Amino acid sequence: MDADNPSSFRQSVAIVWRGDASAREDATPQNSRFVRVFEALASVGIDAQPAVYDESFSDTVREQLLAVDGVLVWVDPIHQGKTRAALDEMLREVARQGPWVSAHPDVILKMGVKDVLYRTRHLGWGADTHRYDSAGTFRSEFPSRVRTAGPRVIKQNRGNGGQGVWKVEALSGGQVEVLHALRGSQPERISLEAFIDRCEPYFRWGGCVIDQAFQPRLPEGMIRCYMSGGTVAGFAHQRINALIPPPSEGPESAESQPGPRIMHGPDFESFQVLRRLMESQWTPQMMKTLEIDEAFLPVIWDADFLYGPRDALGADTYVLCEINASSCFAIPDDAPKTIARMVKGRLSSRGDT
Q: Which of 134, 199, 305, 318 is the most exposed place for a label (fewest CB within 10 A)?
């Protein structure tokens, strides 16, 4: 650094998202969907630059990332048939050479996969949850469970947008009714054997399949708790149609459409019980269980909850259905400022000022 040039002391980060060569060439902070994050980082003295990524020009992106102090990544686990396998290896290499990466791929593999539902099932957010580590185990154990325990939700370990998430309900004669969580999916009646065959590819990519009890209060919506490190950064509440059969055949009706995602700040009164649980109990317990130091928690992540059975006093309980750590976006209005403060603190703690 040049002591005579104060600007040389400014910290720098690159924001990574997927796109083709044209998108990389045209990307600016102002024309990206992360514009508010770029603005918030600038307001705390951090120079941020777009780093559009694709496997076809990964060497160029690697050089860019090695030249900054920190890397913020928003890339889905699966996008148009592409996985994060090559990107994750590149990010590990970059992190080994110095730049700070959030979320680090190894942290995502602990908390941002469906296996977290099994590993943390003993926490207050847990439910009836099982893990199948191989296609053979799934084939031998799942049939009796779905026949005796009621409707189940099968989830591939790594995915997004409802890919590889199925509601499964046993029927007579070895049949099941299955409904994929992908938007526009219709219920199917197929043999249980055929459904098991359909799930076999999930073991090749994700390594395991998770099996949770279906939550009957699903039609009441999903609560997304946005976290920055170990602190709640806001909430969203949304009526969802995934895993709920459409009301009728034919084109989607208004009732079958997902509802608007209503964003709220961290002080929203209706979710203060959930906030206290997340900050004082569940996040610290998760970190202990998964062996994650707080300094390595992503600068933005979210825990998605469904309403569980009401307790003896009629109060709501919450069941974790997934954690998003690979690409948590959209975010509440105040979250970019929280992210910027977190990034500033993380970089400063590494002695980069």
A: 134
- Backbone dihedral region for residue 190 (phi beyond 0: left; psi -120 to 50: alpha; all else: beta): beta
| Strands across the sheet containing 262-264 | 262-264, 231-238, 222-228, 301-308, 317-324
SS (H, E, C) 133-177: CCHHHHHHHHHHHHHHCCCEEEEECCCCCCCCEEEEEECCCCEEE
**Gap between the Cα atoms of 353 and 348, Å rounded:** 6
* DSSP string for 30-88: TTSTTHHHHHHHHHTTEEEEEEEE-GGGHHHHHHHHHTSSEEEEE--SEETTEESHHHH
Instruction: State pLDDT tens for residues 88-98.
Output: 999 999 999 99
* Six-digit token string for 38: 């770029």
- For residue range 125-154, list pLDDT tens digits in order: 999 999 999 999 999 999 999 999 999 999
The β-bridge relationship of strands 231-238 and 222-228 is antiparallel
Domains along the chain with CATH numbers:
6-103+341-349 (3.40.50.2300), 111-125+217-325 (3.30.470), 129-213 (3.90.70.20)
How far is Cα 43 from Cα 101, in angstroms, rounded to an integer? Answer: 21
Task: Name the residue with tokens 């046993």.
Answer: 170
Specify the residue for token string 């390595």.
296
Measured in degrees and rounded to the nearest 5, phi and psi for residue 71 equal -135, 125
pLDDT at residue 6 above 60?
Answer: no
Q: Average the pLDDT over 212-233 and give the result.
A: 96
Q: Is 40 left (phi over 0), alpha (psi -120 to 50) or beta?
A: alpha
